Amino acid sequence: MALIQTSEELTAFRERLHGERFVAVDTEFMREKTYWPQLCLVQVAGAEEARCIDPLAPGIDLEPLKDLMRDTGTLKVFHAARQDLEIFHQMLGELPRPLFDTQVAAMVCGFGEQVGYETLASKLAKARIDKTMRFTDWSRRPLSQKHLSYALSDVTHLRVVYEKLAAMLAANGRAGWLDEEMAALTDASSYETDPEDAWRRLKVRGRSQRVLAAVIELAAWREREAQARDLPRQRVMRDEAVLDIAVQNPETVETLSQVRSMSRGQAEGRYGREILESLERARARPLDSLPRPPMREDLPQGLGPIIDLLKVLLKMKCEAAGVAQKLVASSADLERIAADDRAAVPALEGWRRELFGEAALALKHGRLALAVSEDGRHVETLAVEVSDDSDDSDNSDHTDDSRAGTGTTGDGPDVGGDAAGERAGGVSVAIPVADADP
């Protein structure tokens, strides 16, 4: 039978999976009406068999499943793993290891950004996934054979998808890239919910320190209440209400009841009392103990063209390497790189720096140029010779002067006035003479 509903069946299944090189894993859960995700079904596929595990079955002991997730000798393969990992972190107090996320692997291998499982199953496993049951209420019992077949398809084809992607990573030498991504994905701190940090979910940019103090206390109270009652935080109090109350900062039940987001009944009840206590704590907090409200940093003047060029370079590098742009750098990352060579962004670390970051810094400092090809159909990069008094001159690359009509900077040849080697904001944009205005 495809569905495991007893501890004995689960124990036997776990024993059969001992020594497996990898298992494919997926979960079905519900969280529309709860704070914590409610695990409704777990699908696991080994090399020879696949089963659905019913965590809602009366009396079932999930320890064998937990043991499998903790088994460092068996790779756990997921697709778009973050929500699944959140569930297992809650269940285990730790994260499954080692891990392979096929969505991330596909982005590294050139399948685009956040590619869906159906696409990968079609392209790599030649399988068609029926998603007509994706909105099923998986907490309802009994589950039909159609439900179980649908659920199992999420792991049976995942085995083939994994094998194909693993082979591609081995062939293109990017297995190390994925290892970096999996290390970040299995950072336990990103799955821990601290009520004291709940305010960061709210739009508080530009608020005063005093309002921020109130938001911090109210958001922490709401988070603790949502966790304790297992309710979505918006059911406890909507974001707009948190901000309204923080701005108005009422001190009495009467003034709290006058806030647009509160009814008199709420203000006079337990919620009202606890809200006023939270605001009292906020007023008692020294302002110098508060975190700074997040502010959008104003970019130095003149960086706009540099950012635009970095976007072009990112597109070129990612298309050439067959890697999703989103995986390498965001627009915010490019802004920070344009403003600061030592920006703490992923694009300047690890494999991303090798793929894009070094070239981005070279472009920014005039050691690399973007040029339109002679046929006018694409953009290409050119090394640029930088004069001795420029920054990092000892590391400058040299232009290939054999390319006729290519503009250079510094000591390079003069090939035609403003059309070649035009410099703006420290970035050299080489334009072929043939394409320049006469």
From TrEMBL:
Record's subcellular location: Cytoplasm
InterPro entries linked to this entry: 3'-5'_exonuclease_dom, HRDC-like_sf, HRDC_dom, HRDC_dom_sf, RNase_D, RNase_D-like, RNaseH-like_sf, RNaseH_sf
CDD domains for this protein: RNaseD_exo
GO MF annotations, alphabetized: 3'-5' exonuclease activity; nucleic acid binding; nucleotide binding; ribonuclease D activity
Role summary: Exonuclease involved in the 3' processing of various precursor tRNAs. Initiates hydrolysis at the 3'-terminus of an RNA molecule and releases 5'-mononucleotides.
Record HAMAP family: RNase_D
Name of this protein: Ribonuclease D
Organism: Roseospira goensis
Name of the coding gene: rnd
